[in-house]
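G.,

No rush on this.
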Amino acid sequence: MFKLIGAVAGYFLLNKSISGAIFGFFIGGYIDNLIAPSKATNSQQGNKRHYSADDLFSYYQQRTSSNTDFTTMLIALSAAVMRADGKVLKVELDYVKSFFKQQFGPQFSSNHLQALKNFLDSDDIPLEQICRDIQMRTKEEVRVQLLHYLFGIAKADGVVSETELMVIRRIATLLGISSRDFESVKGMFYRSVDSDFKVLGIEQNATDDEIKKAYRMMAIRYHPDKVAQMGEEYQKGAKEKFQKVQDAYDNLKKVKGIK
């Protein structure tokens, strides 16, 4: 556009000179080249917005201040785990969508999926601020159940990678979840020689009485009634976790011959 304007302006300003028109044409072309990259950048930003950490937390606050449920909280943490290993897998996205549809029913909409995309596309997820907010709003039992859900996302492709484990461990720390609870939930997704001990939060050299005591404590701590106020899918996760505790105790009873 500026090529044409420059050519016309140069022609008349330099006494209707052909050389003036040519000079103006080149000046206009230079201006066009300067403007073109800016337009392309604006177009790309219009199609895909990248939130900064501060902008993303403001976006998070706006959504959670108007919602009484945990959708945005779950979405933010889900995105952090999904991004952990540098790629978002379809099986992980399907796991999250299935959970949300069963958990929130008709309340789950394309608006929530857009929110998930915003978190996934962001430059940085402000986990410290988000986890601090979640810790203030939720009970300890709910936060431990959140951990179980996050491990479920990581395990959706069949294996929990080291980077995913690091992110979940960081989230657990920021949420104020004890290392004992973290190792317990982790043990439900990792099978090893000491997994059953970890699920119950005890060492491999624990006595029979210590195993029984740990089981009773965990059975109370992880009982589904602790998160009875949550949705159906959340209850399902709590029941699965409670069953893992039962399975760990049954395994140890067989191995050690506990009556």
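When you get to it, here's the other one too:
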Amino acid sequence: MRISIIIPVLNEAQAIAGCLDRLQPYRAQGHEVVVVDGGSRDGTMALAQPLADRVLASPVGRARQMNQGAHVAQGEVLLFLHADTQLPDAACDVIISALQTAARWGRFDVRLSGSAPGFRLIESMMNLRSRMTRIATGDQAMFVTKDLFHAVDGFDDIPLMEDIALSRRLKKRAPAACLRQCVVTSSRRWEENGILKTVLLMWRLRLSYWLGADPAHLVRQYYR
């Protein structure tokens, strides 16, 4: 079973080489790395070229970029990875093992990179919520069989909450594998904007989305 690791990027020159270096063992095993650039102006594409199987240019928008990567992917499984997220050891083997059960999609638990005690509480609540609701976020390195991804028409073309929208459709089709191995994702947003302020913002945005708010309106609040 071959896995296509799809990485949407935008101005990730500082992180992309380190991200792709960590994925080289998976390429050596026969898996595929696809980088989809949304219009970077800092040389991200040039840095990615020698370290990926494909580097594509795409209109900006994480959902659009990931859909484009999925369209060209050669693997039977799609793994969507943020450039600032690090997979656990033997991640592809773990995914393949999980998909040999009834599951056809899933995600990892998440650990935030920061050392502050508050981050341990945040990541524990994120993982518990995801396990209870079977809703995954992009920070958790979502994976799905290619057939199922295309059967539900991929990510919605929305600027925010595309991961939640996809999870909703996927869990109606097949059970999720909620893996306890942790990806490590950057805590820079919490550190820059404040832990409590960021948590409250994310709760408010998710609640608004569940109540039917337009993601185009929510994304302006997210980046404000």
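The chain has a mean pLDDT of 93. The chain has eleven helices and eight strands.

Enjoy the weekend,
O.
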